[in-house]
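Two records follow; treat each independently.
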Amino acid sequence: MTVAHGSQTQLAFVKETTPGVIPANPPWQIARYVSEGLTLDKQTVSSDEVRDDRNRTDVTDVGRQVTGPVNTLFSFFTFDDWLAALLCGTWSGSSLKNGVLQKTFAFEKRFEMGVADVFTRYLGCRINTLDLQLNAKQNVTANWGILGVGSPNPAAAAISGSTYAGATTTPVFNAALNVASLSITGITTTPKLQALSIRVNNNLYPVDIVGQYEVYDFGLGIFDVTGSLTAVFESSDLYQAIIDHSDIGISATLSDGLGNSYDISIPKVKLTNGSPVGPGNGRAVVMEVPFTAIFDQTSAATIAITRTFGGINPPVGPPAAPSLDFSSADNSQYIGQVI
C-alpha cells in the first residue's frame, strides 16, 4: 500500500454560492499553506444508563461540524478571498472593511496515494479567525481558523468538471525588508516594535436544530480585533498612553518589493495593559502591550485593508489548469508542478 505524505498533499478551495453546496464544474484554487488541521469533528453522547455490571451501553453519534486551522505564510493576493470572508465584506476596488456579509467556501484535500488518490472535502466553511504575526527578522505568518457544516464521504476522484488554478507565486512578506511603514498615532514618540500580533475573531457560533445531523447555520458574534505590541522601551510615552487610556491608531504597510502592498489600518485602539519590566542582564527592556480595537466612526470600520497592485495586474488570478481525473492513474508526475 502507498502511504500518503504531507509534502504531497494538495489543499484547494472554491467559493460557494449556496452554503454547503459545491458549485457545478468547480473552479478550485490551489492554496498555499504550511500546515493544516481541517477535520470532521464528530459529536457524540455517551450513555449513562445504570447497569449492575457497571458497563457502558452505547456511544451515540449525534452531530458533526468542520473545525481546524490552516497555517500559512502571508503573501500578496494569495488570500484576498479569505480576507473578504474573514471581514464579512467585499473588496470595493482595492479597499476592504469589516461588515456583516457571510461568505462560505468548500475545501478539498487530495492525498497522493499512487494509483488511487483520496479526496476529502469540507463544506459550508467560514473563516472564523485570523492570527497575523509580525516578528523581527521573521516571515509574516497568517494562521486561519475555519468552521464548516460537514464533510461527505471520502472520494477516489476529482469532481466532474473540476479545474485547478495554480497557486499564486507572489513573494512571502517578511518583517525585516517588507514593512514599508509602521505607524502608531496618538503617541508623541512612535515606539519601535520587536513584534506585532493582530487577531481577528468573528466569534461564530453554531445553530443546531432538532431533526438535523449537521450544523444548520452559523451565527455572527461580536467582531473582535485584538492583539499585542512588543515595544522597545525608549521613552515613557507609550506607558503614559496606557495610563491615560488614550485612543491609539495602528497601521502597517507590507510591501513585497514588486510594488504589491497591503495597508492594514486599525484606526482606534485601547491599550489595555502593560508596563516596562527589567528583564535582567543581556536583554533590552521591552513593554508587552495588549490592545483591543473599537469601532471608528470616521472610517466606519474597526479594521480596514487597502491593497496596491504593482507586480501583478488586478484582479486576474493564476491561470486555470485542465481538469484531471486523479483516480485513473498514478499522478505523481504532477507533484511539485503548478497545475
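The next record belongs to a different protein.
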Amino acid sequence: MSSILIEHLSTDGGTLECSVRASSDLERFFTDEQFRTEYDVPIDDVPDGVLAIPVLAQVCPVAWANGADVYVDEVDATFARALDDVQESLCEMHDFLEGGTLYARRTIEPEPEPRGESGLLFTGGVDSTSSYVRHREESPTLISIRGWTITPDTADDGKWDALRTRVSNFADDHGCETAFVESNMLSFLDHPMLLAHYKRYVDGGWYSSVGHGLGLLGLCAPMAYARAMEDLYVAATHWDGIDLEWGSRPDIDDRVRWAGTQCHHDSYDLTRQERLDVIADYVRSEDPDLQLQTCNDRMDGNCGECEKCYRTAVGLRLAGLEPAQHGYPFSDADYRDLRRSLERGDWVLGQDERHMWADIRDRAREIEPATPAEKAFFEWLENADLDELISTSGPPLSHRLLRAGARNAPTSVYNTAYPAWKTAKAGLRFVRSER
C-alpha cells in the first residue's frame, strides 16, 4: 500500500523539523533531508496539530499523485477538512492526480485568542504590492519565503539578503511588520524526480502547476498561529477569465485554513493592468517614490532588459506613471528593442505572458499614445499574433531521455544513478517568479 508517514516532529525556538518516511514505491520522490523550516518567531507553544501543517502541505499533493495515504500523529481538524477541499480542486484540475486519505491518531480544535492580525505573502512585485495597497488599512505583516524561487543554497544568499533588505525597507516606510520564513520544502522533496514523472502532465513545473498555493500558505501556519493572524493573503497571478492549470487559484487558496486563520486568493477580480492602476492611484495619492521589483534576472533592482521588466515598464506607462521613477530604466528607444526581441523569440514565453500582453493590448486600445515610438509599438502589438510569441519547443532531448529513464527505473537503480541524475537538476528545474 502506498503511504507517507510524518514522524519525529520537533521544535527549537523558531525551528521546525520532522522526518518523512515513504513506502518503497514512493521513496524516489524524497531525498535524505529532514523537512526543516525556520521562522523568526518562537513556535514552541504552537500545538503539534498546527506544526504538522507545513510538511503536510508539501507531501499531500505528492501522495495524491500516487493514490497514497498520509499518516500523522496529530493534525488540526480545520486543516484536515481544508485538505479534503483542496484535494477535490486539484483532482478536478489535474487528471493524473488520484487522491488519497489523511489518517491522524488525534485531531485537535484549538481556539487561539483572536487579535485581528493579517499577513500578506510579499515580494514587492506588481501583484503583492497591489494587494498591499488594497489591504493597507490592516497593516498586514509582510511575509517573505525562502525555499522556492530563492532557494536555501549558499549561492542564493545574495538574492535572499537583497529581498530581506528590500522588504524590510518597504515595511519600515509603510508601518508594517515583517516575517521571514526559510524552508527546504523543495530540496527535501526530490524535485527532479517529480519533474521526471509529472512534467509531461503540467504546463511548467511540479510546484508551480500543482503545489505552490497549498505549499506556501501551509508553510506559514505555525507563524500565523503564533502571531494570531486571522487572515492570510496571497496575491493572484492570473485573473477571472484565465483558466490555466496553476497551483494557486481561488478554488485552492480560498479553501486553505486552520485554527484561527483563513487564507485568501487576493485580487483575482483585477487584471494585471488593473493592478497597476491600483498602484498608480496609490502613487499619486500617497507614495510618489514607490519602487517595484519584478525582474527575472536580479533581486537588487530591475535590469530593465528582460521581458518582465519591459512588460512592467510598458504597463506603468499605460497606468500613467514614468517607469524610471519606479525602478525601471525605460525610454522610447526601448520600444524598438522590445518589439525586436518579441519577434525574434529571445525569451521563453508561456500562456501567462500571452494573457498579459493581451491585457496590455486591450488597455492600449483605450489610450492615446504619448509619443511616435509608443504609437508604432502599439500599432504593431495590435496586429501581432500573440500565439506565435509562445514558446512551443520542449526541453532538450537529453533532458527528456533523463526523465523517461528516471521515471521507469526501479528504485534501486535510480538510487545508484541519482548522483548523475542530480547534475541535470539545474536544467530541469522550473521556478516561478511573481508574474
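Discussion point: Residues 396-404, 416-435 have pLDDT under 50 and may be disordered. How would you locate this feature using only the C-alpha cell line?
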